[in-house]
Amino acid sequence: NAGVTQTPKFQVLKTGQSMTLQCAQDMNHNSMYWYRQDPGMGLRLIYYSASEGTTDKGEVPNGYNVSRLNKREFSLRLESAAPSQTSVYFCASSEGITDTQYFGPGTRLTVL
Amino acid sequence: AQSVTQPDIHITVSEGASLELRCNYSYGATPYLFWYVQSPGQGLQLLLKYFSGDTLVQGIKGFEAEFKRSQSSFNLRKPSVHWSDAAEYFCAVGGISGSARQLTFGSGTQLTVLP
Lengths: 112, 115
Fold this sequence. Notes:
The structure holds two protein chains of two kinds.
Chain A: E1 4-7, E2 10-13, E3 19-25, E4 31-37, E5 43-49, E6 56-57, E7 65-68, E8 74-78, E9 87-94, E10 101-103, E11 107-111
Parallel strand pairs in A: 2-11
Antiparallel strand pairs in A: 1-3, 3-8, 4-5, 4-9, 5-6, 7-8, 9-10, 9-11
Chain B: E1 3-5, E2 10-14, E3 19-21, E4 24-26, E5 32-38, E6 44-50, E7 56-58, E8 64-68, E9 73-78, E10 87-97, E11 100-105, E12 109-114
Parallel strand pairs in B: 2-12
Antiparallel strand pairs in B: 1-4, 3-9, 5-6, 5-10, 7-8, 8-9, 10-11, 10-12
């Protein structure tokens, strides 16, 4: 039981490049989330998916897109990366009833 | 909308000393409350959670937290800190926002443990 997995762990991009961050969970959870973490700002929600086939914007969605590929997988795409998107990105999943979220190990992204 | 305040950005304690990390929340109903810990370069690990019932909840690694409705607080405590407790601690409140239940996080408290 791996929990929540994320790939890649580290990534360096140049401004304007695109990439997709992958997330998968094996806990049969309905809800999945993407956060970014920046120093002194805690975790901010980018997008979430309450259930398979649905996605919604969170607090900071600009510059990102998401796909809920199936119940297990939820990807985050940066179409044209900007230096302001340099951050650590966390994926999480939840059974959606008690709000308990389980986090992946994170992806550290640097945009030059 | 719910919100969480962690007033202490950074706390330093000596190994073996007691610890209390403060958390205040704003939420219109009975909240679901959480404490998570993040070690350097790692993801967030759930320490404990409060849903209802006994207002003193026990978590992993010897941590406990007390829910005080009158003070809108959910402070985290540990009687004797170990060097391995050095990490960043996040308080969070759960609630409905949009189409799903979500967590709102505080900005975190960085804990340094002196030998």
